[in-house]
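Dear colleagues,

As part of the handover before I leave the project, I'm documenting each prediction I ran so the next person doesn't have to rerun anything. This entry is a single chain, and its sequence is reproduced below.
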Amino acid sequence: MITFNCTIQEGIVPEDIRPRLASELARITTGFVGGNPDEVSVNWIEIPHGFGFRGGRLSTTSAVRGEIPPGLQQETRVELMQSIQDMWMDLTGCTTDELVVSARDRRDN
């Protein structure tokens, strides 16, 4: 299972584009690590307006935190995260300063 937790600021990522973001996360990630896009889980964590700040101003930053199968080579991991960033920026209109993307290895217990 591949999981993404997307922490977003209320009003910054409209609900109507979230399904497309989720499907693109699944498509991109399984393109790099294999697997079935239907087995990718995307969770949305919305920070209420006025509860997130950066640099003394209301935050517009989103964080896309992935948990992927272990063993992905560093160069490929960087390409994966860059592809996610490019897609997210294209669909949301955010800038590089408004997005944090990470992909850690899943811990199988």
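The helical segments are 18-33, 74-92. The longest helix spans residues 74-92.

All the best with the project,
I.
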